[in-house]
Specification:
Elements lengths: L10 H4 L7 H15 L6 E5 L7 H6 L3 E6 L2 H9 L6 E5 L12 E7 L8 H11 E14 L3 H12 L12 H10 L3 E5 L5 E7 H10 L10 H19 L5 E14 L1
Parallel strand pairs: 1-2, 1-4, 2-3, 4-5
Antiparallel strand pairs: 5-8, 6-8, 7-8
Bound molecules: S-adenosylmethionine.
Length: 259
């Protein structure tokens, strides 16, 4: 049985299909630094580091970073971005972190727990490696409801084509579990974590066509081409042109957990 989903297969397209603006990424890092009082003496663990969306700006601010991921291809992408010398990576499974207990000042888990069947064990591992005064950050991007994407996913869902979620089913389920582990949860709210996401329908269609979203990985080429055709028709009927720009509110939900 599959235990987790590695992103090796989509590493080359990952960054081009995740548009978190740089000022928002910087704001996330700033919020984590001020919440956990991080400095150059601290270690920050990015659990499921991927291509380093958050690890890179954190390391550039002088905090020591360890990124852990199972996908070598994702981390290769990270290294193509010339990380500073205080960013280290380890290819390992988050269910067994290669890190001493109580040695880390802050851990970030961003968009990972839905991919791992035994996600609860990952959170136990995060708790184990955190120092007593350490902070676990859980990050979720939400909003970004682009009509073409919504339509495609709705059609695929109706036809039973979406891959069932392997790991955590919802944020609430994760928060409930960290509370069971003794964690006190705070939502960090700040205007810098909100933005207006703007894309043409064509850009959204192009992203969908890459199928980097793990929900779409089981859709056959044939079914995908048909879904894309229908989605293009929907866009033309509803909006006239694929070139039309669409704007939608987006927000990063950043939770700080102290055990
Ligand atoms: C959706 S990406 C998120 C990457 C990064 N946190 C970000 O927000 O851009 C999920 C990452 O988790 C990694 N992953 C999945 N299961 C894992 C596991 N059991 N151990 C380590 N990494 C895992 C994938 O390979 C992928 O790089």
């Amino acid at each position: 049985m599959i235990q987790y989903l590695s992103f090796d297969r989509v590493a080359d397209d990952y960054d081009a299909t995740r548009f978190l603006p740089e000022p928002v990424r910087e704001a996330v890092v700033e919020q984590m630094i001020s919440t956990a009082f991080l400095s150059g003496k601290d270690w920050f663990l990015d659990a499921g580091v991927g291509t380093g969306r958050f690890a890179l700006p954190m390391a550039r601010r002088g905090v020591n970073v360890l990124g852990v991921d199972v996908a070598g291809n994702m981390m290769r992408r990270l290294f193509q971005k010339h990380p500073p010398a205080n960013l280290y990576v380890a290819r390992a499974d988050l269910r067994r972190l290669p890190v001493r207990s109580r040695s880390i000042s802050a851990v970030l888990v961003a968009h990972v727990l839905h991919l791992i069947a035994d996600w609860r064990w990952v959170l136990r591992e995060c708790q184990r490696v955190l120092r007593q005064d350490g902070v676990l950050f859980l990050l979720y991007e939400s909003g970004k409801r682009f009509p073409a994407r919504e339509y495609y996913i709705q059609l695929a869902g109706e036809r039973g084509l979406l891959r069932p979620t392997l790991g955590a089913q919802s944020t609430d389920e994760v928060l409930e579990f960290v509370r069971d582990l003794g964690g006190a949860v705070t939502l960090i709210e700040h205007s810098s974590l909100q933005w207006l996401a703007r894309r043409t329908h064509r850009e959204v269609l192009h992203e969908l066509d890459k199928r980097t979203y793990s929900q779409l990985w089981d859709i056959t080429d044939e079914a995908h081409h048909e879904l894309m055709e229908q989605t293009r028709r929907y866009v033309r009927e509803q909006f006239g042109s694929e070139e039309e720009m669409y704007t939608t509110e987006a927000v990063v939900k950043l939770y700080a957990v102290r055990f």
